[in-house]
Design brief:
Blueprint lengths: L1 H13 L2 H33 L13 H28 L2 H33 L7 H20 L5 H15 L2 H11 L19 H33 L4 H6 L2
């Protein structure tokens, strides 16, 4: 019972715009600092110290940007859709602020995944673009992000925009497992799972270590950007609140 009460207390704290603004301000320097350290180490390991691939040569080093961006493109959408669902179902305004903050960040990572994938595809497949299942579903993900952002701003009333965009986010989340399992469900030029296999990963240990560091750095950087944007979103939405007025005095 006490554990359940503590969980709900923690949940309601995070639902408080003022509490989030205060605590996230303390975390931001740490998040940006940790991500900078991880990126520095990961890029040195990935671009200089890890071995080239026996088939792809040095072009495989694009993986250290492409794979984290692809992971975060999907993670960002799931986070956005979850926040939108929480706001839609439980009428928590702060959740809509988180969804609104996550959308542009997720869209940027999705574009980065598509761009680095095209750069990687040219030396590997001898083409910049193919309409295979994974690339096409990733492009649809980018359009879903754009649709969410556009729908939010299509209404003068912010709450109406939040609800309409939230429905799109919740419906569109079905595309995420399609992206993930597309290499198993359809014929595609993309290789299968390498680091998420239950058996031994099919990747060199040094390359795997560098990739995991880059993934960790990207996730920390994602949350740093999310907190930064969510703080701005909260200030805009709560601009009439007394605590915001006192803050800007």
């Amino acid at each position: 019972m006490r554990k359940s009460m503590a969980t709900w207390t923690w949940f309601h704290k995070w639902a408080s715009p003022k509490w989030f603004y205060d605590i996230s301000g303390r975390w931001l320097p740490w998040l940006f600092g940790i991500s900078a350290l991880l990126f520095s180490y990961g890029l040195v390991q990935g671009l200089y110290l890890s071995p080239p691939d026996y088939q792809q040569g040095n072009s495989v080093r694009i993986m250290y940007l492409h794979v984290p961006a692809a992971f975060l493109s999907m993670f960002g959408y799931v986070l956005m859709a979850t926040a939108a669902a929480v706001g839609y179902i439980w009428k928590i305004k702060f959740a809509h602020a988180v969804a609104a903050a996550a959308a542009p960040i997720g869209a940027c990572f999705t574009f980065l995944a598509l761009f680095t994938g095209a750069v990687w595809g040219k030396p590997t497949w001898n083409t910049w673009w193919v309409w295979d299942a994974r690339i096409t579903s990733e492009l649809i993900l980018l359009f879903l992000y754009f649709g969410f952002i556009a729908l939010r701003h299509a209404f003068d009333d912010i709450q109406t925009g939040d609800r309409a965009a939230g429905v799109l986010a919740m419906v569109g989340v079905i595309n995420v497992p399609v992206i993930h399992f597309s290499v198993d469900w359809w014929y595609t030029l993309h290789q299968g799972a390498t680091i998420s296999r239950f058996s031994k990963p099919t990747i060199d240990a040094q390359m795997l270590a560098a990739l995991l560091v880059m993934i960790a750095a990207s996730f920390v950087f994602f949350f740093a950007l999310l907190f930064r944007r969510a703080r701005n979103e909260v200030l805009w939405r709560e601009r009439q609140a007394s605590w915001v007025r006192e803050l800007v005095k």
